[in-house]
Predict the structure.
Amino acid sequence: MPASLSPLGPAPSRWKRLRTELFGSRVDGLISIALGAALVAIAFGLLKWTLFQAQWAVIQANSTLFAVGRYPIEQQWRLWLLTALLAAATGVSWGLLRALPRDQPSGQRWPFNDRLAAGVLVALALAVPLWLQLSLAIQLRWWGITALVLVLRWALARWGSDVPWGIQRLVPLLWPGLYLVGMVLISGGLGLIQVAPSQWGGLLLTLVASSFAILLCFPLGLVLALGRRSELPLLRWGSVVYIEFIRGAPLITLLFLGQNILGFLLPGGLAPDRVWRAAWVLTFFAAAYVAEALRSGLAAVPRGQLEAAQSLGLSMPQGLVQVVLPQALRVALPAVVGQFITLLQDTTLLSLIGLLDLLGTARAVMANPAFLGKSAEVYLVLAVLFWCCCAALGLGSRALETRLNPSNPARYQ
Amino acid sequence: MASRNPAAMDPILEARGVQKWYPNGYHALRGVDLTVHRGEVVVIMGPSGSGKSTFIRTFNALEDFQQGSITIDGLSINEDTRNIEAIRREVGMVFQQFNLFPHLSVLDNLTLAPVLVRKRPKAQVELEALELLERVGIGEQAHKFPGQLSGGQQQRVAIARSLCMEPRLMLFDEPTSALDPEMVQEVLEVMQELAADGMTMVVVTHEVRFARNVASRVVLMAEGEVVEIAPPEQFFTAPSHPRTQQFLQQIG
């Protein structure tokens, strides 16, 4: 896909390059053929199993359970509304990104990736509801939501540049705003009927718990990382003890511990029930690791950077925010996102303390005698779902890395 | 101190009996006195480990000291952070390692502090910054990033970055020591023009020619003390102190 940017004259044709890479020597050729054959065999076997042997009734019959758990049916319109709002925000952001002038190297230009992504979206929206044998009403909802994304994307790509800059720059604020709206829609309050967290489940619970922990562990980790490098002894030692204690304990023990003691530690109302207690434990746990990742980033910024900032009259906080952190974050970003991905997968441990996250739901479904022996199908779907979430995080991280790269001309404006 | 310019008898920097111990107990500065008058160029020379870099870094409180006093334009350096920040606004510093901000464009390197610290309108600062870059000979590089420039160019940007804060005193901590030999001259020329424009400068350097041609006075430091202060012609031709003679032989 990416056109070659090699400065060494015209790039050799793709076919020729492939040939020299795979069949450079006799041994290379043998290895390539053997590995190729193995790959084809595996892919063929998997395809055959997926298409002809697997029985997907277990997924089809339980798709709602996997998606939202035992969320009350009469309140599920709130989740549909949230999905539609998220789709609208996606469409708006996507369209505006397309409308922005960007002078990136041709290989990374938007339209291609972007049409590919739109194509995949359409294909998934058409295929998945049919495959899940959803009722027509629900199929139509999914198609409507997909259409909403695409229409907004198209409209804003076309007329987005006419939107005044003052409004355009507010668009990123849609997302944190929507997160808060989403929390209210999911849990109730402000005139909506309360839906207790114990009724959330499946993908919904996994996403709520992991996004909550990801959002909060970052600022907490940042404070800990700065604390560990601070010159104030109490702050420094406090951070060290916290980080080393958390890193020395397995998450599962902390989760069990949290169910028992978090109620005493946090002020009343902050951790009222088991789901929120678990989410806080995940947050505190991940913060220690994020802190260490950020510390490595901070250590990579030469001391002279802060000195230069201070010699220009910047205060310590200004120097940290404007000079040190942007550089440290760039270094630490891959490790931090790696930590986020681990955190997302760690949410499966919630099933061990009796919560019905994605894995917990799956275990409940597999325990149903009607679906005995269908664990392969269930685990494969779980793996694909987690892969999608992690791939999204990874893609976001790479985009951010490019953006923070000091020699990338398309970073600002 | 006999200054060559009688109009410049107005002191901008006064260091009195400055003593510094490093946390490991090393006695880096052993009671150093120095007065710098407005418009003067004071060059500090000395063998490595003599404390000259440590000394110049106390002037904008990048290094602390345990005894003595330093007063800059009426403000004395103390524990008060706001006071220190006020002093740093008026004192520019150029480092051996340039210390440009690699994540910001050259132009943003210059405008960051005036906009953030002096709260000046960005558009106006940008115009001034472009003028300054023109003055140090790199106007056309304004939108590049520091990593794309040569060492000499980076150091000139660093000088322009300090000037953009309109400092009353400029400190240079071995500004040419990290440069490839062919780039030393372009940086020294910029510094020389700056001196000719009347900027007050304290320069730690090993460049004898610069000291001879530009300095109002030359200071020799050794083992954490000031050994000799003299106008350059006297310093280099008829030094009064044997330690200075020894130093000149070593570098000559």
Confidence is low (pLDDT under 50) at residues 1-6, 103-109, 409-413 of chain A.
